[in-house]
Amino acid sequence: MTEQQADTQQGVYIRKIRSFVKREGRLTQGQARAIDKNWPAMGLTMEQGLLNLTEVFGRTAPVVLEIGFGMGKSLVEMAAAERDKDFIGIEVHRPGVGACLMDAEASELTNLRVIEADAVEVLEKCIPDNSLARLQLYFPDPWHKKRHHKRRIVQPDFAQLVRRKLHTGGLWHLATDWQNYAEHMLKVMSAAPGFRNLSASGDYVPRPEFRPQTKFEQRGQRLGHGVWDLMFERES
Length: 236
Fold this sequence. Notes:
It is a single chain. By secondary structure, this protein is an alpha/beta fold. It has helices at residues 29-42, 53-57, 73-81, 94-106, 119-126, 156-165, 179-190, 215-222, and strands spanning 7-9, 12-14, 43-44, 63-67, 86-90, 112-115, 132-138, 166-176, 195-197, 228-234. Strands 3-6-5-4-7-8-10-9 form an 8-stranded mixed beta sheet, sandwiched between helices. The protein has a two-stranded antiparallel ribbon with strand order 1-2. A hairpin with a 2-residue loop joins strand 1 (7-9) and strand 2 (12-14). Helix 1 crosses helix 4 (94-106) and helix 3 packs parallel to helix 4. The radius of gyration is 17 Å and the shape is globular.
């Protein structure tokens, strides 16, 4: 199997190409303190294996999972606004994990957990099938050079991994500020079995109220840059 190939064997997504580059940033004192203080209550690890989400959160509630939450501000804002739901955030960059935990502590959140790991491995090994109400992928690395398109996380096999983790009726919400990547996402998802596009026009949807606008996004829109949201429902 070449580097460019990904296969599905016995229902397991086999990852061959990483969709991210891990950048080792320096933790601030506040981020380090937030990790030390809040990790026992809010941190998850790959070593825990397949999670019992009811035990993780101490209740039964809809679970929302976000891939690549950055510095975590919008994730914390969503968890604070939807306290009837439980949130899991995945991020590979430790300063982002620390910043997220610092803001979560300030907001006194009890419905948020974070894990510092590769999202594909987390989905495959830690998240039960048919368990998620919503999966969010906001502004992933677009890998805009054509020779790097193979590194984009949204690919047919990954779409089927997401489908397994959503329960029937669950939503996959994607957003990007790169038109070429939006077109790629739409092409992949339009061909993905088991999903229904919730766009009335068969392409993109308006930004839903539950997704906060980032400062970066607001600045981009003032400069005339576009943002594309896609919403797909698992129907089978």
